[in-house]
Amino acid sequence: MLIKKPSDIRPSEITSEANYMNRRTFIRAGSIAGASILAAPAMAAVVPDQPRAKLQGVIESEFSTDETPTSYEDVTGYNNFYEFGTGKEDPARYAQEFDARPWSITVDGHAEKTGTFHFEDFIKPFDLEERIYRMRCVEAWSMVIPWVGISLADIVKHYQPTSKAKYVAFETLHDPVRMPGQRRRVLDWPYREGLTIAEATNPLAILAVGVYGETLPNQNGAPIRLVVPWKYGFKGIKSIVRMSFVEKQPDVSWRMAAANEYGFYANVNPEVDHPRWSQASERAIGAGLFAPRKPTLMFNGYGEQVAHLYDGLDLRKNF
Ligand SMILES: Nc1nc2c(c(=O)[nH]1)N[C@H]1C(S)=C(S)[C@@H](COP(=O)(O)O)O[C@H]1N2
Ligand SMILES: [Mo]
């Protein structure tokens, strides 16, 4: 079971859980009230510009899994971030000198509000939440990661996309001086990703700014990266500098590289194999060499929350 239901809550947790839910309801009621006195979030999100700095005012999310998180060492030492090399240990080694400040994010396309914002101003209107999510890489390994992030739905709504906006596209910084892996054409830079508006406004999608209660290490996508727990890890684009509201399905990096292997949707699906390997089971990073592989769950176990997004869509064709 992934997400706690009331019946799973231990008696000792009930008081804090109830307080938390009340606070959450209050916060949501406040944001629905629009321009009223309750409109401001409980906390203006603030993220220190130092690596491994403690994040303050983080709300616990109701969406967390109750699985034990993967160790900090594995979460920050076994990564995919081709801008810093293609080996799993390259990002931790070669991203250390990267300075993720100053940072700005451009919001453009079909939205009422657009512009270029300092990272600090971009995150300020929102709440910071800790969400412990199960992550599944297309390479058939998985982790459980305590992200700290902002609801992507809240961010999207803030910019008021128009009816023409059918997708949200994201881009990573393109700077071969600061990101040495971009000097090789292993991908068509910048790294690009996208979601439908319905996916981007699903409550499970977040833009993460921290992990394990601290600011995001460079190798995990500082200062801000996407996390979509029901999709393969490659959808979780790192070090985002652009968010565009677009009408047509955007180009996305791995599909551009190999359209027969990687689709736009990239939903975790044990029934649809990658052309070169099975997607039916996964290896939990940190569980040890002899630990049995775990069966992979449809939508990574988040089906109850997201299956409706794909009603009527053939998930074999739209992989
Ligand atoms: N910009 C960028 N984002 C990226 C990647 C990348 O190479 N470049 N790799 C993706 C892949 S394949 C995975 S599995 C996740 C890994 O995230 P993590 O290292 O924080 O676990 O990042 C994704 N985001
Ligand atoms: Mo991945």
Describe this structure as you would to a colleague:
Mean pLDDT is 90; it is low at 5-39. The longest helix has 22 residues, at 11-32. The chain has one domain: Oxidoreductase, molybdopterin-binding domain (Sulfite Oxidase, Chain A, domain 2). A hairpin with a 2-residue loop joins strand 8 (206-211) and strand 9 (214-215). By secondary structure, the protein is of the alpha+beta class. It has eight helices and 13 strands. It is globular and about 45 Å long. The strands form two sheets. Strands 1, 4, 5, 8, 9, 10, 12 and 13 form an eight-stranded mixed beta sheet that branches. Strands 3-2-11-6-7 form a five-stranded mixed beta sheet. The structure holds the ligand Nc1nc2c(c(=O)[nH]1)N[C@H]1C(S)=C(S)[C@@H](COP(=O)(O)O)O[C@H]1N2 and molybdenum atom. The ligand Nc1nc2c(c(=O)[nH]1)N[C@H]1C(S)=C(S)[C@@H](COP(=O)(O)O)O[C@H]1N2 is lined by residues 79-83, 137, 172, 191, 220-221, 233-234, 236-239.
What layout of secondary structure does this protein have?
Layout: H1 11-32, E1 58-60, H2 72-77, H3 90-94, E2 104-109, E3 115-118, H4 119-123, E4 128-136, E5 141-151, H5 152-158, E6 167-172, E7 192-196, H6 197-200, E8 206-211, E9 214-215, E10 225-227, E11 240-246, H7 253-257, E12 281-284, E13 294-295, H8 303-306
